[in-house]
Amino acid sequence: MNGNIEYPIIRIIEADDNEANQLLESGLCQFIDTYKKSTHDYEFPQDTYMVYCIGQNKYGVCSECNENMVKYVKEKWSNKIRRKCKACGAEEYLIY
């Protein structure tokens, strides 16, 4: 692993095969595995990919515009943090 990566993070994003390939080719993410949806988890659709994201800050970069994300909400009783893009306002979950 590259020693320059200060905050490697794992996040879950909804993506089909083409979108996952684009993320890989961009160098922002490294594919790990598909996310298996449990019967009680309605937040993420079935064909969602888990990706290893290499961000420029602790909360990574926005998948919409590649700008830095910031912490938005830490969910109670969960390892999920909702994060928000300063530039375009997109919101995503960050999974620790």
Automatic annotation (TrEMBL):
Organism ancestry: Bacteria, Bacillati, Bacillota, Clostridia, Eubacteriales
Organism: Ruminiclostridium herbifermentans
Domain of life: Bacteria
Listed name of the protein: Uncharacterized protein
